[in-house]
Write the structure tokens for this entry.
Amino acid sequence: DTAVSQTPKYLVTQMGNDKSIKCEQNLGHDTMYWYKQDSKKFLKIMFSYNNKELIINETVPNRFSPKSPDKAHLNLHINSLELGDSAVYFCASSHAGAGNTIYFGEGSWLTVV
Amino acid sequence: GIQVEQSPPDLILQEGANSTLRCNFSDSVNNLQWFHQNPWGQLINLFYIPSGTKQNGRLSATTVATERYSLLYISSSQTTDSGVYFCAASSGAGSYQLTFGKGTKLSVIP
């Protein structure tokens, strides 16, 4: 069983559309994250949730809204998609607190045309 | 926030050669991890190593926290080692987030 799973793996959509990426972890972790990897391979955190509560919200446009229905799920909804949103989005999870290994999902490739 | 710098940015090796990748960080760390991103884009955990030395097969890592650097050693490289190696760290109040370096792109040629 995949520890951190994301769907869809690939997504091609038109500008202006709204789309969601789903993430689930079966590791029993209480902290989940969304990271974005741009075309230059640079990875940067977007959001972090601990026990369904938002604890990190980096400078991300309001069009991006994370939702955590429970500790095992963290979904990412994107409104009014723009060309610049094209990237790979990685979900990750860990136990809370400092010094815990963070595990990543396989990534969701989003292409906005 | 913490700064993470990796070197070299690119590395080409003949199969069988050894290599050392370096990660410098700007602050004391409570989390430091090495990842391998394979050509299919998967991010694979290699080591969780905020201090000390660990080994896993042909790979080993050492972090000297007092001098703020970490090294990843790859011995007897194979073509399957190709990809991008990332170092990521967190410190203090930012312990819930990892700051990634820009990676070292490794190409192992037969």
